[in-house]
Amino acid sequence: MEDLAHRIAVYLAHRMPAASQVEVSGVSRIPGGASRETYRLTATWEEGGKKMRRPLILRRDPVASLIETERDVEFNAYRAFHPTGLPVPEPLFLETDLKWLDRPFFVMEQIENCQAGSPFNTAPYGPHAEKIGAQFWTHLGRIAAADPAKTGFSANMEAIAPQDCWRRELDKWEKVIDEDELVPQPIARAAIRWLRRNPPPPPPRVTAVHGDYRTGNFLFDGRGEIRAILDWEMCHLGDPLEDVAWAADPLWAFQQTERPGGMIARAEAFRLWEEASCMKIDPVRLRWWEVFNSLKGLAIWISSGKEYQSGASSDPILAFPSWYCTDVHNRVLAHRLAALSKESRS
What we know:
The chain has helices at 2-15, 71-81, 129-145, 148-151, 165-180, 186-197, 241-247, 266-277, 283-309, 316-345, and strands spanning 20-29, 37-47, 50-60, 91-95, 105-109, 115-116, 207-209, 218-220, 226-229, 236-238. By secondary structure, it is of the alpha+beta class. Strand 8 (218-220) and strand 9 (226-229) form a beta hairpin. Helix 5 runs parallel beside helix 9, helix 6 runs antiparallel to helix 9 (283-309) and helix 7 crosses helix 9. The longest helix has 30 residues, at 316-345.
């Protein structure tokens, strides 16, 4: 990591012209994270006669990834929501010139003394589950309530009409399955047919959608305070119920489906979201997005399996979901489709 530390120090000196004697230490890769290489580090320098120190996070595009995303979209999401008071790290530098670290990357502040809960833990938040759950769903409501244009979230994003949100997302993830499946996916294909035959009503308005808002993608401290909402790489404009359904997906509950994400009861979670977003949850729309999100999950796990099996990456983070998560989402989808079929016959 010494060479990487030196190269990062040279880059930071370039971006901070008032700083001198810039040094980088403690560079270590954070495990997990399937779409970017994530490193924690500490930068020190002198400025105005004072010694300065700042812990940082660097997110670099990988050689191979579970999902293909644009780092500038993720960086802009942090930039849009950081001034609003939503707990997100401060974004600092976005770099696309390959001469610095061979691949594009961005730098943001590091939130110290925190941890992320595992979606595969039966009690990821211990005694803080209720407190964290209330914050989790309230923050998601705040994301939906924010005006994408006023915050700058929608900068450089293509506008979309409310009635087109579902089709764009379904087209996108069906294409991923088409391109990456290694074996036939009959349950996924059945879900796609149902989703196309039963389009949802349009949302009352288009909002910011995080795209991967769930257990494991935020940091909390020892007092049970959410300190940072992370991993905005799949964010976009769309129907806010897409985020609600993904956050409540059974995969993140680890066999506690009545308590989404291992936090608070589903009814209370949805009440808090409605209160913070100033919107009501339409059960018909929610059902569509619930089916869609299990399909989206399948598409991601199928893609990760292809990356691993093809040898594009040997990272186990790509192998595990292609086995375990694929199985879970196939079961969830099969159960949901069976219930929908029974409902249509009654």
